[in-house]
Amino acid sequence: MSYELIITEKPSAAVKIAQALSDKSPKKLSSREKVPYFEITHNGKKIKIVSAVGHIYGLSQKEKSRKYPTFDISWVPSADVSKNSSFTRKYLNTIKRLAKEASEFTVATDYDVEGEVIGLNIVRYACKKEDANRMKFSTLTKSDLVKSYENKKPTLNWGQAKAGETRHKMDWYFGINLSRALSAAVKSVGKFQILSTGRVQGPALKLVVDKEKTISAFIPEPYFEIKFNGTIKSGEIEALHKAGKIFEKEVAQTIFEKVKNQKTAIAIKVTKKQFTTNPPTPFDLTSLQIEAHKCLKITPKNTLSTAQELYTKGYISYPRTSSQQLPKEIGYNKILSELLKQPAYYKLAEQVLKKGSLKPNNGKKTDPAHPAIYPTGVVPSFKNDYEKKLYDLIVKRFFAVFGEAATRETMTVEFDCNSEIFFTKGTTTVKKGWFTLYGNYVMLKEVELPLIEKGDICNIKKIEKLDKETTPPKRYTEASIIKQLEKENLGTKATRAQIIETLKDRGYIEGKALRATQLGIRTEETLEKYSPRIVDPELTRNFELEMKAIREKGKGQQKVLDDSIVAVTEIVDKFNKHLNEIGKELYSANRETQENLSRIGKCQKCEDGELHLRHGKFGPFVACNKYPECKTTYKVPKNALVKGNGEKCEKCDYPIVLVQKGKKAPQKYCINPDCETRSNGDSKNYPEENTICPKCGKGKMVLRKSFYGQFLGCSNYPECKTMMKIVNGKVDKENIISK
Predict the structure, then answer these.
(1) Catalytic-role residue among 91, 311, 318, 669
(2) Is there a single domain that holds both residue 338 and residue 423?
(3) Using CB atoms within 10 A as the burial measure, which of 101, 306, 436, 466 is most buried?
(4) pTM over 0.90
């Protein structure tokens, strides 16, 4: 019997769609590869629902070789492209098998460019069809899924499909060919090293490197400020001289001499000015990532993955959106009524509903596929703190966009101090408006001044001349670089966070405040010197505009691909003319960067060398770089990330290392195995020593020593791996570790 086959992007979406559409309880089945799928009836019609796991097809070179440039590529199963994707084969085989007896096909992947490519490839290669029906939904709630199915389009969104396919091919052309050129350059000088760049990676790296160079070239300029602290009407104030930053030392000194002995200042002018602060616009992905970073300290990458989880569970709408608009069709009142059922949001939801007429403060940005991000009202169950915090931010933002404008008042007071003018300023909230709905996420300072009137006297407690220096521009954070990439039209809303992660993984940038490493700087300089188009944002920007046109009009695909082939060929040709010079510069930069990253601190034994993290046959260790003259070495944990932090031990003056195991917070340890910070009392005897092991009952608990200090371990190791930690000179018998 034939049936309709619905194809989803992820297993969790298949579950949601099956539950939403089924006349009865969905029948869960399993393929011979143990891949689950569902069989249901919807209004009596037989339907099977099967899932992919993201992309199950990838691009691959038709003839395997390391030659470049190459543009002869085709779509093949992802399992054939990468060993890491081998798990996708069983999903592909299941889809192929179910497709054989299906008479109708419906794609229900995420409704965006990537989802369209996933669906297109499955339809044409696994199902052997040219087209399929298309469901479009922005939430995984039952009502939205039923509506989406009943209003499904008879064809794929070919604009999205062609734009997505073009992006994949173009990124392959740039990424593979340019990365091969980089690696070939290093190989030309007899070295092996994997380096990478790409269509967006290069310009993104240039942004960080340019900022780093601006900071490095910055010359601080000294200036002076003159201020006084005083009391007026029982309140404390601080007032700054009207000149602000004074760059002439003589001018600053003249003013200071005139006021330094003054005991009072008189208020000669009081100005009050009110202004309104409009509610925020609804979240698109970029603004959510920026706000989550600012308010919750969550990285853009984690924000995206957490938001995706919340969407998959049905708690929020689709997060990969560029829209800052909430259309009426989503049902404001219905969502608010559902949020009323959650005790944490009852009062706020009630407050918004009392407004009667609801009109969100929509922003200018739109997205043809999805509205702005909003909560669905489904009562959530969180698996971690990230989900809880991000959900709360999204809900509060949803409330706030319907709020009234807030009113704030700035009060500026002008003081006369021996004919020198000083100012103080305070800003307070007069009408809270939407602030009450957004809660702790309103990041505005309240500076309240006493009720000062003209003629009031301020008693000066302290007056001082401050020596200061101008400061360089701030480095990008992960949030601000994403904002800049969006402004420059580089990358997409869904890829920008990953681009930054890739630059970090390659060792080009580091830190929370993004700092370009020596490798990053030298790589960017080398690329710009020998083949500037690699890092030229204009090239990438133009391609982005052309892909937007493909998405909107559904044509122009081949021209963009032809243009990208020409661009890559020109870049590689220029690159190859200087292969040896490029190789020398890149290898030198990488060695220098690796030396900096591996540095632990000064060698205390020879006092001449430096300790570096090295990797040997038996794992990592720390050694002096003056080997063989100095053969000092120290053990470090094998299954942990170890790096220096520039600090010295307070007890023995040896270097401190940071040791991080898994996702746990890094811990500080002295590198010296004989340091008292690691001994837990070497000379002490413990009453628990030589007692019978509490787990196996055969061995005895004997004193042992590891990098982390002393502990009691079972003598029957490795058959029994029971341990007792020694904390503050005592054996911890309450928390016995048995691996």
Answers:
(1) 318
(2) no
(3) 306
(4) no
